[in-house]
Amino acid sequence: MKHWALLILVLLLTHQQVEAGDGFIRTRGVHFLLNGSPYYANGFNAYWLMYVATDPSERTKISTAFKEATSHGLTVARTWAFSDGGYRALQYSPGSYNEQTFQGLDFVVSEAGRYGIKLILSLVNNYEDFGGRKQYVDWATSQGQNLDSEDDFFTNSVSVVTRRNSITGVEYKDDPTIMAWELMNEPRCPSDPSGRTIQDWITEMASYLKSIDGNHLLEAGLEGFYGESASQNQEFNLNFQVGTDFIANNQIPDIDFATAHSYPDVWLAGTSDERQLSFLSSWVNNHIQEAQNILQKPILFAEFGKSLKDPGFDMNQRDTLFDTVYSAIYLSARGGGSAAGGLFWQLLTEGMDSFRDGYEVVLSESSSTASLIAQHSQRLNQIRKMYVRLRNIEIWKRAREKNNGKDTGN
């Protein structure tokens, strides 16, 4: 079965019509493509990039993070492109933006491009950190709109993708440094466990963004919990009822790829490390299969990690968790499957102690984890090179057959 998937991918790569060299990430079937070749997103989360870059004197931290990341083969960063109300706000009132903060985001995009890192930019938070949907509801109620709860946010939302970068002069919607937009970080609507409220919101917002920006991929920001469309899989929800539906939400045509998050140390707190790893393995592999067979779209494991603050923590536990995710991604990718990459939470550099949350990876301090990350990057790069070679061989064979046909005709 895996060999058939690999063969299909090679044939797709051979026949595709892709703009050469435009630098935008595309999807074809269950794969990401960059300039016609398979692309695997081995990367990291760094929510803090814009926040820190708002202060020009702190921008070296962004440059250092990108430099360290690329030296370990990391090519994708997921970060917040929102800060609604509060300190260093990007949007300080509805539709009104702080130019200094926007210039911080401009620097992040510009610097990512300089280091060859693609960005996934999340447009709003589900939680109160950095404002979130609660801030939008507060703004709406202060203007006289009748909203009963934070869940009413899903019928009152805006997003911005048309910023012109003050450093590069390129509008965000035209910048290939940006890999994808994310509608929301971990959308949840517990008041409607059927998932229909979020389904309607994703459908509306995805269509709106695609009407503005046809260059970039779009994903919803989901954690991966199942809903009514896959009731047989709700055992994986662990009694979480968050109002999302991994299958139905990701089947929306304007959503280009699926995402899943993985925090077994939180979701299964108090259980053994073995139990958490067993769940993680099943969770990751089940989502890969659902993306492959039902969604027929790539899947990105957009957050995963283990906290240093967990009772009895040792570094081997975190490395084993990383290896569990990485191995599942590699095995799928090697066989032409839907797993397109993973982004650990979170990358920091030295001197950022106030941002430590227990999940931080400081590459210069974590030699075993850093080595594991670099090895995974190398393995995915080898797969990419293999597909490129196979595609070139197939193209050469077709050209040879065509030339031989012409010779025979003469």
Automatic annotation (TrEMBL):
<feature type="signal peptide">
    <location>
        <begin position="1"/>
        <end position="20"/>
    </location>
</feature>
<protein>
    <recommendedName>
        <fullName>mannan endo-1,4-beta-mannosidase</fullName>
        <ecNumber>3.2.1.78</ecNumber>
    </recommendedName>
</protein>
<feature type="domain" description="Glycoside hydrolase family 5">
    <location>
        <begin position="149"/>
        <end position="346"/>
    </location>
</feature>
<keyword id="KW-0378">Hydrolase</keyword>
<dbReference type="InterPro" id="IPR017853">
    <property type="entry name" value="GH"/>
</dbReference>
<keyword id="KW-0326">Glycosidase</keyword>
<dbReference type="GO" id="GO:0005576">
    <property type="term" value="C:extracellular region"/>
</dbReference>
<comment type="similarity">
    <text>Belongs to the glycosyl hydrolase 5 (cellulase A) family.</text>
</comment>
<dbReference type="GO" id="GO:0016985">
    <property type="term" value="F:mannan endo-1,4-beta-mannosidase activity"/>
</dbReference>
<keyword id="KW-0732">Signal</keyword>
<keyword id="KW-0964">Secreted</keyword>
<dbReference type="GO" id="GO:0000272">
    <property type="term" value="P:polysaccharide catabolic process"/>
</dbReference>
<feature type="domain" description="Glycoside hydrolase family 5">
    <location>
        <begin position="24"/>
        <end position="144"/>
    </location>
</feature>
<dbReference type="Pfam" id="PF26410">
    <property type="entry name" value="GH5_mannosidase"/>
</dbReference>
<dbReference type="InterPro" id="IPR001547">
    <property type="entry name" value="Glyco_hydro_5"/>
</dbReference>
<dbReference type="InterPro" id="IPR045053">
    <property type="entry name" value="MAN-like"/>
</dbReference>
